[in-house]
Amino acid sequence: MATVYFDNAATTQLRDEVVERMTECLKINFGNPSSTHSYGRQSKSIIETCRKSIASYFNVSASEIVFTSGGTEADNLVLRSAVRDLGVKEIITSKIEHHAILHTVESLEKEYGIQVKYVHIKPDGHIDYTHLETLLQSETKQLVSLMHINNEIGNILKLHEVATLCKRHHALFHSDTVQSVGHYHIDLAKTPVDFLAASAHKFHGPKGVGFAFVRKNSGIKGSIFGGEQERGFRAGTEAIHNIVGLNEALKLSYNKLESERHYISEIKSYFIEQLKAVFPEVVFNGSCEDLENSTYTLINVCLPIAAEKASLLQFQLDLKGIACSKGSACQSGSSQNSHVLSEILDETHLKRPSVRFSFSTFNTKDDVDYVVDVLKEFV
Predict the structure, then answer these.
(1) Which domain holds residue 176?
(2) Cα 279 to Cα 356: distance, rounded to the nearest angstrom
(3) Among residues 20, 287, 348, 358, which is most buried (max CB within 10 A)?
(4) Is 267:363 a contact under the CB 8 Å cutoff?
(5) Domain with 338 in it: what CATH number?
């Protein structure tokens, strides 16, 4: 039986070079970075070299990169500190954000009594920029949190446009860029974003490590207390091997970006063509069929499959060795509909099975052919 991994939006396969670099670090660089002897200084030097390297890809200073356990922690660090330490009274977000944002905002609403406003979502899954500007007409201190690339439908936010709009209205802007870092260039010297969140395992790095970009002099403070690691933003001994793995994965992703984007885009386009041939009534959720306005790394399809067959679809795909997702990995065990699709699909299409297929450089067109052949059994 063939096996196909089409769930790269959930997590990606480690590159061999990353494994090698991490293994070398685990064997040799075991010193505690907070220790003052040579072993500690060597480990500290490695962390700071990685920090400087990562910062260079975003055209920012090394001091603006804060290592975290991943995107969720980075999101929490920014949102909670913005309310607790910066006096933010209103958060503007959308109902199709990752739950790392939505649940954090809900918690802050209960804890601090802040006001949460949700920008309108258009039927194609893009935000209503006119409505966003209306929401920004406020004298209250605001923070906008909108993800760069939606993890379920792949829609791309106009990051520079939103950042500029927020700056014009004196609102802070945070973006969850977990699905875009390593796949798109983001020049933070030109785009006035205040805060970003990233996670290494989305671009062929290790799980358990990511970073927050925190604009210099923002006033954000830490929320994990103890030692002075990460300049007080995040106490606790650093996982040097994970930071090394993050840096290596990011370096390789950006060095290979253009060639891999072209390669993966061709896989996506081919998959779209094959699905249309088998399912003329297939619906591509959001704007994922549009290569200009959605990421090249995924599609989310609503399949015209009879109800009696639809209930077995996910099970059968897994049985045939195909890894994909009905939503984000964080909620794939839930029987509830995707909160993202619930916002953009009508009742008829919500009753049909929607599946997210997401791609990487490790995939091939043969993988697509195999998946389409399996799906033909449901016609």
Answers:
(1) 16-255
(2) 16
(3) 358
(4) yes
(5) 3.90.1150.10
Q: What's the CATH number where 76 sits?
A: 3.40.640.10
The answer to whether 77 and 68 have CB atoms below 8 angstroms apart is yes
Closest CA to 181 of 151, 202, 157, 209: 202
Candidate list 166, 302, 324, 330, residue with the active-site label: 330
Q: Is the pLDDT of residue 334 over 70?
A: no
Instruction: Give 108-128 pLDDT, tens digit per residue.
Output: 999 999 999 999 999 999 999
CA-to-CA distance for 23 and 176, rounded, in angstroms? 29
pTM of the model: 0.95
Residues 25, 144 within the same domain: yes
Q: Chain-wide mean pLDDT for the chain?
A: 95
53 and 105 housed in the same domain:
yes
Give me the amino acid identity at 179.
Answer: Q
Cβ distance 40 to 66 under 8 Å? no
**Could you tell me where the DSSP H helices lie in the chain?**
16-28, 38-56, 71-84, 99-112, 129-135, 159-168, 240-255, 257-278, 307-310, 313-319, 339-344, 347-350, 365-376
Which residues, at least 6 apart from 19, have a Cβ–Cβ distance to it below 8 Å? none
Burial of 332: CB neighbours in 10 Å, binned 0-12, 13-18, 19+: middle
The tally of domains found in the chain comes to: 2
Per the annotation, the verdict on 330 as an active-site residue is: yes
